[in-house]
Amino acid sequence: MKCEVAITNRSGDVTGRMRHPAAPVIQPPPVIQPPVIQQPPVSQQPPVNQQPSGLSDTPKSQINKDRDRDLSECERESAFAGAGDKRQVFDKCMKARGY
Q1: What is the pTM of this model?
Q2: Packing angle between helix 86-96 and helix 59-79, nearest 10 degrees?
Q3: 3-state SS class at 9
Q4: What is the DSSP secondary structure assignment for residue 6, as one 8-state letter?
Q5: Are 16 and 2 a contacting pair, CB within 8 Å?
Q6: Taking the mean position of all CA atoms in its chain, how far away is CA 73?
Q7: Does the structure show a pLDDT above 80 at 67?
């Protein structure tokens, strides 16, 4: 397919014509929409075997919190001990707390 172009001077008079191939029409690629994934509705109630977050201080979780706190405190104490005594200080501290 060819396109005709008029060549004009400054006053607008046509001084010639030129034919050249038309630029190809480039169409954008089609937009591909991702598939819609249907998800089941989210339940607002916790499962039967799970307690609400306000009651999370069960005896087992409290024991874990206490152990972690004791462990941190004994590590802190042993950090101040001399180079050869760190392990002994830590062990003595944990033993004194019942571990």
Answers
A1: 0.40
A2: 150
A3: coil
A4: E
A5: no
A6: 34
A7: yes
- Which residue in this structure is represented by tokens 């001399």? 82
Other Cβ atoms within 10 Å of 74 Cβ, number: 20
Element (H, E) at 22: none
pLDDT at residue 30 tops 70: yes
C-alpha dist (Å) from residue 24 to 2, 5, 20, 27, 84: 11, 16, 12, 9, 83
Kindly give the residue spans of alpha helices, DSSP state H, lying in 1-99.
59-79, 86-96
Report the distance separating Cα 94 and Cα 98, nearest Å: 6
How big is the chain by its Cα radius of gyration, in Å? 41
Over 60: is that where the pLDDT of 48 sits?
no
Phi-psi region of 12 (alpha: psi -120 to 50; beta: other; left: phi over 0): left
7 neighbors 14 (Cβ within 8 angstroms): yes
Note whether 2 and 19 are within 8 A (CB).
Answer: yes
